[in-house]
Amino acid sequence: MTADDHIVFIVDDDERIREALVELLDSHGMHAIAFESACDYVRADKPDVPACLVLDIELPDINGLDLQRQIADRDHPPIVFITGHGDIPSSVRAIKHGAVDFLTKPFSDADLMAAIHAAIAQDREKRAERAEIDMLRQHYLDLTPREREVLPLVVSGLLNKQAAAELGISEVTLQIHRRNVMQKMAAASLADLVRIAERLEIPITHSRRVGGN
């Protein structure tokens, strides 16, 4: 991991804690930016790289758990909570809503670094998945209107002649459209195309699926 392929955001109102965490992360070759309030963090421009948010519970402007709730519907880095006032209900709430870890001060450097590495790995995976979905959506947009009609019929398991009859076209024309769909969607097989359609949540209007009777 290099210092320019990730970032760790730190939100803590204690200047000594912020400085210590930045120094710790720097010693591990990790890039960090620290904020003393949630408001400063929310307003800041953030680079589009895998990230982790190390978040204190008790902040001057908002409770860290409330910030977690407020940004839940946005794309935000996985959260590692740190607090000097930990309790079981808070930790349960934090983890239930997706936090990677909930560490009570004083915590060990090893525990914090393990949590941060896990958070960044999680964010990398999430970003890769989003990028793949975006690519599949672009492939789908490249289909012609007719090819978009063919796709759900094909993945529903209809035979070529059945799908052709459904659309009122010849079986040969259907086969051409089907081949184009496979190529444009970069599907290696019919099963692969079915998985792609499921990931894109394309409505299937026929009940006969691949492998069905």
TrEMBL record:
Species this chain originates from: Rhizobium laguerreae
BP terms from Gene Ontology: phosphorelay signal transduction system; regulation of DNA-templated transcription
SMART domains referenced in this protein's UniProt entry, alphabetically: HTH_LUXR, REC
PANTHER family per UniProt: DNA-BINDING TRANSCRIPTIONAL ACTIVATOR DEVR_DOSR (PTHR44688:SF16)
Pfam families (UniProt xref): GerE, Response_reg
Species classification: Bacteria, Pseudomonadati, Pseudomonadota, Alphaproteobacteria, Hyphomicrobiales
Gene Ontology MF term list: DNA binding
Domain named Response regulatory: residues: 7-120
InterPro entries in the cross-refs: CheY-like_superfamily (IPR011006), Sig_transdc_resp-reg_C-effctor (IPR016032), Sig_transdc_resp-reg_receiver (IPR001789), Tscrpt_reg_LuxR_C (IPR000792), WH-like_DNA-bd_sf (IPR036388)
Domain HTH luxR-type as annotated: residue spans: 136-201
The entry's keywords: DNA-binding, Phosphoprotein, Transcription, Transcription regulation, Two-component regulatory system
Protein name (record): FixJ family two-component response regulator
Positions of post-translational 4-aspartylphosphate modification: 56
Recorded superkingdom: Bacteria
Keyword Phosphoprotein tagged: yes
Gene3D superfamilies the record matches: 3.40.50.2300, Winged helix-like DNA-binding domain superfamily/Winged helix DNA-binding domain (1.10.10.10)
